[in-house]
Amino acid sequence: MSAEERRESVVRAAVAEFARGGYLGTSTETIAHRVGVSQPYLFRLFPNKQAMFLAAAERCLADTTRVFVEAAEGLEGEEALHAMAEAYQRLIADDPEKLLMQMQMYVAVATAEAAGDHEFGDSVRAGWQTLWDTVHLALGADVDETTTFLAYGMLINTLVSLGFPSGHRIWSGFYDSAQPSEG
Length: 183
Hints:
Number of helices: 8
Distance between the termini: 35 Å
Protein name: TetR/AcrR family transcriptional regulator
Radius of gyration: 17 Å
Organism: Streptomyces scopuliridis
Order of helices and strands: HHHHHHHH
Number of strands: 0
Helix content: over 70%
């Protein structure tokens, strides 16, 4: 396996492990074990744990952005909105680590900011800005539509993270494309 392929497997493992344990609760030893490499080898690919976390966060945001781009391709307005909502619901149903990683990103950035480390969040904010811009363009550069779509998305993240099942009354105010998938 090439160094680039190994790096890719570390990023995938980092997403899975950080999604479950968070930044502070995940050791690089755990990531190394999941990949099947030594801890020193990890540090030949990434300078430190923070770099691994940020690579995992960037991947998560890039994957989510790609899902929105593909869903909205060739669509406009409400059609794009519903296509992106449905695609996002499939993403978090099929790959729940993406949702958990998102939630861990927000906690990690807030924790770093509270400790005075304002650079930690720069990369995550840049990825989130790209996500926002992608949705914004797909929704016709309408700030209100973009804000509403992403606000509903964050509410969906919260409700799914809290374990509200599909069909629960809490979902009754969501349009059909934003309803959680069964399972």
